[in-house]
Write a structure and sequence with these properties.
7 helices, single chain, mainly alpha, 153 residues
Length: 153
Amino acid sequence: MTLIDRIATNFASLGPFGKLPVSGTWGSAVAALAAPLLFMPAPFAVRLTMLVLVFIGGSLACDIVEKNLCRKDPGLCVIDEVLGQWTTYLFFTALTPWQMFWGFVLFRAFDILKPAPVRASECWMPGGFGVMLDDFLAGIYAAIALAVLIALT
């Protein structure tokens, strides 16, 4: 395994979290816990830039991991959960712990259920880009659902 392979694997898996059981949930949990410190306080333009960088970097890293493991969207890759979870929180600068929790639950639900066109989007782009795109769209759904939930409470 080359240095690039190791870097890509560690980035795509968030180190040890991609190796845990139910790795997608762990990846989302790490992203949700980090969001109030690393993501949400940043200006909106910086948050968008962060999402673009996670999308591009995650896509490239997941592509390398897929090729090395000879598997499409391996469970080891959880950087896509960071993209989706942070997309869920994109339009919010501050949330209560309960709102953060519901954002987490909503993203996991949309990521697992993959309503149209989330499931289809996995095939719209090749390799790691498809891995990342479906979680981005699930994050959009979760952001809308979270906004509705907050408006109703």
